[in-house]
Design brief:
heterodimer, A: 410 residues, alpha/beta, 2 domains, 5-stranded mixed sheet, globular, B: alpha+beta, 6-stranded antiparallel sheet, 1 helix, 31% strand
């Protein structure tokens, strides 16, 4: 086989130990319009783990390069990525030395203009945070899968999404998947939104580890012969570096590197532009995901607002309340950044009580909601139930909190 | 994928441990099939209970270990083997329902 056409790297059948007529899987796929992939193509229902759902998403994402360092519960997904590399759906893939190296290298790949994927969990995210927080300012569209787990001592590897709170103010686009289906759909949407010329930002898709990654659930997937369009590195807010014509500067404007008034001013306006770009991404997520939020029972007085796995537990609580003749509303927050302030305000305009269950100690979603709803909504907003450190959130717990809340706020 | 016939409800594991629960219903009896997270994909399995519903409309049920079908929690390691069991269970539940309807009539006659 000749060098892979259109690829940034040259993989030959000989290099890969494949038969001479081997064709990489990605080369056999057909590029399809993203809106057609998200909303029109027929879907087959599989019953697979979250890690396998991530693999099927990556298979269709036209990934040029993946770089990662293993950490539970992310490891299994990136093992699956290894299979995709072997099959030729990911053009280049390697295990970096650790997370700072991983996230620095993936930034370099994105600056070079190729579609770049990485993944991590809890402590790995913390270790690489210095590099991660530089991605938005560098305007690097990177897709990172984030399988949340406990980050602090004592050591635990169970679900806890406190790590998401560390990314809220970085300028990263941040989606929170509820289940295996979301962990298939959201990365594809995040890639396309992050690479739009008026966005050009990294995107993270978080999921609550183990509960989703290591459990099976129903996932409807599009035919594997279709893939997303490739990244166009020149169609960006900051053009890709031309590595074939050095020198290429990482920071393009010398004054920004100096400690003087001009540099502070430039840095300030640069940050404003990054966060404005986050807001501009909302229109893309809106059309790719069919809205930044999902609303159940919009006319209810009692609402639950949740993201991630807490949505599933809340969904069942809403169903059981319905069996008892009580209507409880649910707002599923799909996108944390951009935060769907106006959509949530509109959804809960008639609410009297809002409960915010979370899988973390800090209650970051509750704080976000209070910040945007304060003075604009008449409902009482209650933080809880909150479980963390790997604790579970049985449906009964949500139901008990709802009953107690009704007694507290008449 | 599991059989979709007589599927009464699909929901996240109500215990909060992650995974999914399928509830099948044939008249008053049914099956709960629960698949939770495991460290390795190969370890993922189904835990199945025979259940008896408490109410004709809601999903409230109690676990039944008194039928001929199962006197304990059953484990299945493939969708295929569970689907075979589900098919047999559907037939059994139909017969059980008929028998249970006959019993009160017999007692009234005697």
């Amino acid at each position: 086989m000749a060098n892979v056409k259109g690829s940034s790297v040259c993989r030959t059948a000989t290099d890969e130990g494949k038969p001479a007529d081997w064709v990489p899987g990605g080369e056999k796929q057909t590029v399809v319009d993203p809106m057609k992939m998200f909303h029109e193509l027929p879907r087959e229902k599989l019953f697979i783990t979250g890690s396998e759902a991530a693999r099927e998403s990556m298979r269709r994402a036209n990934i040029d390069i993946a770089i990662a360092y293993p950490i539970t519960p992310q490891s299994e997904s990136m093992q699956q990525a290894g299979y995709l590399y072997d099959e030729g759906y990911i053009k280049e893939y390697y295990r970096a030395e650790e997370e700072i190296g991983t996230f620095s290298a993936i930034s370099g790949a994105s600056r070079a203009g190729v579609r770049s994927l990485t993944a991590t969990s809890g402590p790995g995210l913390m270790r690489g945070m210095e590099a991660i927080s530089s991605w938005p300012g560098a305007r690097t569209p990177i897709i990172m899968l984030n399988m949340c787990r406990v980050i602090n001592t004592p050591l635990a590897i169970q679900p806890d999404n406190i790590e998401m709170s560390f990314m809220l103010n970085t300028g990263i686009l941040l989606l929170h998947a509820e289940n295996q289906q979301d962990f298939y759909d959201y990365p594809l949407a995040a890639i396309m939104a992050s690479e739009q010329v008026d966005v050009t930002l990294p995107a993270v898709v978080s999921v609550d580890g183990f509960f989703c990654t290591h459990a099976r659930g129903p996932v409807e997937v599009t035919p594997e012969e279709y893939k997303l369009p490739p990244r166009d590195g020149w169609r960006s807010a900051v053009p890709a570096m031309d590595n074939e014509n050095p020198p290429a500067r990482i920071s393009r404007d010398a004054p920004i590197q100096k400690s003087n008034f001009i540099s502070y001013h430039m840095h300030s306006s640069w940050q404003q532009e990054v966060f404005a770009a986050v807001e501009r991404s909302a229109k893309y997520f809106d059309k790719y995901l069919g809205g930044l939020i999902e609303v159940v029972n919009p006319d209810a007085e009692d609402f639950i607002i949740a993201s991630g796995c807490a949505v599933s537990q809340a969904r069942e609580a809403v169903r059981q309340e319905g069996e008892q003749g009580r209507t409880v509303g649910l707002v599923k927050v799909k996108s944390i950044r951009p935060f769907p302030t106006e959509q949530i305000l509109d959804a809960v305009k008639g609410a009297k009580r809002i409960l915010v269950p979370e899988f973390n100690q800090a209650g970051w979603l509750h704080k976000e909601l209070c910040a945007v709803l304060y003075g604009r909504c008449n409902a009482v907003i209650k933080d809880g139930p909150r479980v963390f450190g790997g604790m579970t959130m049985p449906t009964e717990m949500v139901l008990e909190w709802l009953a107690e809340f009704r007694k507290e706020v008449k | 994928m599991l059989i979709q016939d007589n599927l009464f409800l699909t929901r996240s594991n109500p215990s909060g441990n992650g995974g999914v629960q399928f509830l099948y219903r044939v008249k008053d009896y049914g099956l709960s099939a629960l698949s939770g997270p495991q460290e390795e994909i190969s370890m993922i399995h189904w835990e199945v209970e025979v259940i008896k519903f408490k109410d004709p409309k809601t999903a409230e049920f109690e676990i039944s270990h008194t039928t001929e079908l199962a006197d304990k929690t059953l484990k299945f390691y493939s969708d295929k083997s569970l689907n075979e069991f589900i098919q047999k269970a559907f037939q059994y539940f139909e017969e059980l329902d008929s028998l249970e309807k006959m019993l009160p009539n017999e007692s009234q006659q005697s």
